[in-house]
Design brief:
The protein has a 3-stranded antiparallel beta sheet. The chain has 2 domains: 14-105, Arc Repressor Mutant, subunit A (Orthogonal Bundle), CATH 1.10.10; 109-212, no CATH class. It has 11 helices and 3 strands. 54% of the residues lie in helices and 7% in strands. It is mostly helical.
């Protein structure tokens, strides 16, 4: 895996708590660690990645060298991340076993899809006129909206922010009505972030979008 999504406001929410506990260098170490895990992934030939693939095992030396950190501070860093539910960690002998399902949200199925997400995923980001036009066209027609992507954005938003207001602000005004129509961030936060629930939320979002836009083209 050579690419993963990184949003411009990733430093808010739980990662802000991490920085408050361990300093700003912990933010950099978190993303170094995420990159290290993602680089080790091998794409299954017959399916997309799922949560079962998000298990990793590294020896202490590997992590100390990768994160530029002393042994005593490595344990503190990993332990704090686990306390903040960024990932789960256990140690057997010299091996750290990691379960890191959050990075499933950062993975793109292919680079073409990644380019599409970069044009739409960060509200407030600078976009040229052509990108803005494409985004408007996506909102105008249900046939042009990838509701799976919309559901994934919702799950990512409730992971990044504890505040429902910030979740909706991050998602943007165009999504706010149909996200609220299915129960809002509170509803999504109460669901497990797995393939079944993402598909279910995608269907609910599509239905609410059509109900709120009865006169527009439907899928």
């Amino acid at each position: 895996m050579k690419f993963f999504k990184h949003f411009t406001d990733a430093d808010e929410g739980t990662l802000n708590d991490l920085m408050n506990k361990l300093g700003v260098e912990a933010y950099g170490r978190y993303w170094l660690f995420a990159e290290f895990c993602i680089k080790s992934l091998e794409k299954p030939a017959d399916r997309e990645f799922n949560e079962a693939d998000m298990k990793f095992s590294f020896n202490e030396r590997q992590l100390r060298e990768k994160l530029r950190i002393k042994s005593v501070n490595l344990g503190k860093f990993l332990g704090t991340c686990a306390e903040l539910t960024l990932f789960e960690v256990s140690k057997v002998d010299e091996k750290f076993n990691i379960y890191f399902p959050k990075i499933l949200k950062f993975l793109d199925r292919d680079s073409k899809r990644a380019r599409k997400l970069r044009a739409n995923a960060a509200p407030g980001a600078r976009q040229d006129k052509e990108e803005d036009k494409d985004k408007e066209e996506d909102i105008e027609s249900a046939a042009k909206i990838d509701f799976r992507d919309e559901a994934e954005k919702c799950f990512l938003a409730v992971t990044l922010f504890d505040s429902d207001f910030k979740v909706l602000e991050w998602l943007g005004e165009s999504r706010k009505p149909y996200v609220n129509a299915i129960g809002g961030p509170k509803f999504i936060r109460g669901l497990k972030n797995n393939d079944f629930e993402v598909k279910r939320v995608a269907g609910l979002l599509e239905r609410s979008w059509k109900n709120l836009n009865p006169n527009k083209e439907s899928a």
